[in-house]
Write a structure and sequence with these properties.
Strand content: 5-15%
Number of helices: 12
Radius of gyration: 35 Å
Mean pLDDT: 83
């Protein structure tokens, strides 16, 4: 298991609201891990005037003894912090404190969780809220899991430090996460972007790059449409002049150019959608092997080197609408160019 990087801070301070009758003040330790704070009494005491910047001033016997003890406490906290980090892959301030004070929580096991679930489910069976047949299936699953661990790992149970819950897509996490945090208040429930902030940053960069590429494509499309329709207007100067002479209004000429551009854009969009759907349909089954470029870099984040494209109707609709909008905007200049023609001069044009 790869450990998740976190930050640790240890601070010693005086609990000034707990001054004793002899004038001494208790020294407390504050542990901060990733912004989470917990504290405990070090069982040490000192006069308030002798304390400065987290330590006792002076070189007296008591000052040396207390400062030495505080350094030992700090070193012990750091030791337990790194032990938990390497063993479990995640650390909280409360777990570090409990480990240092010898109150580390008992490890929970897979079968213990299973038995707890089955006991709660059995209560529903007794209250006629569900069927005993389903309960029997859960018990059968538990027994098969025990047999599997005995056969594979030679043990009947295994400790569990974390559990991964898979959802249909990462957007679902936004609704599932609050529910899990509400149901499991005693556990540290985090979403994928909290566990892997680097992956979240990578997705953000990917979205930004995709947006930039889309803008570049739309600009290229716009210039292509402007060039095509402008050439069409220049090549049909005589015909446009003839239409103006026989009484066609400028509004109808403008609408004709715009509709022609719209039809051209629609036909191109339909052909592009068909070709894109065929490519995605083929690669969705076989996948796109990126091993030659990425090797096994994504495996650190739980991804494979083979990408399987998915046909997203929402993205298709958005892109088609953007293409149509780009086509309509691009047709304005050629249409206005057609309106600026002088009918008589246009007729004389060969």
């Amino acid at each position: 298991m790869k450990s998740e990087k976190s930050t640790l801070s240890v601070l010693f301070y005086l609990k000034r609201d707990k001054v004793k009758k002899n004038g001494l003040v208790p020294i407390h330790a504050r542990i901060t891990v990733d912004g989470q704070i917990t504290q405990f009494n070090t069982k040490l005491e000192i006069g308030e005037t002798a304390w400065k910047s987290g330590k006792v001033m002076g070189r007296s016997f008591d000052a040396t003894r207390i400062n030495s003890t505080l350094n030992e406490i700090r070193a012990g906290i750091h030791t337990h912090y790194h032990t938990l980090q390497q063993r479990d892959g995640y650390v909280t301030a409360e777990r570090v404190k409990n480990a240092f004070l010898g109150k580390e929580e008992k490890e929970k096991t897979i079968i213990a969780f299973f038995e707890q679930h089955n006991e709660q489910f059995l209560l529903k069976v007794c209250n006629d809220l569900t069927t005993r047949k389903t309960y029997s299936r859960y018990e059968l699953t538990k027994n098969r899991l025990i047999n599997f661990m005995k056969e594979k790992y030679k043990v009947s149970d295994m400790p569990v430090h974390e559990a991964a819950i898979m959802v249909d897509d990462y957007e679902t996490c936004k609704t599932v996460l609050p529910e899990l945090q509400k149901v499991l208040p005693a556990l540290d429930v985090r979403s994928w972007d909290e566990i892997q902030p680097a992956l979240k940053l990578m997705f953000s960069w990917t979205d930004m790059i995709n947006s930039i590429i889309l803008v570049i494509f739309l600009l290229a499309l716009s210039f292509g449409i402007v060039n095509t329709m402008l050439m069409a207007v220049l090549e049909r100067t005589r015909e446009l002049g003839m239409l103006a002479c026989i009484g066609m209004s400028k509004r109808r000429i403008f609408n004709m150019i715009m509709l022609e551009t719209l039809f051209l854009t629609c036909v191109g969009s339909i052909i592009g959608i068909i070709i894109g759907s065929l490519v995605i349909g083929f690669t969705a089954k076989s996948g796109i092997d990126l091993t030659f470029m990425l090797k096994d870099q994504f495996e650190d984040y739980g991804f494979g080197s083979i990408v399987y494209p998915v046909l997203n109707i929402k993205i298709y609709v958005e892109i088609v609408l953007l293409v149509l909008l780009a086509g309509i905007i691009s047709a304005i200049y050629p249409a206005k160019k057609a309106l600026s023609l002088n009918p008589l001069e246009a007729i004389r044009n060969n």
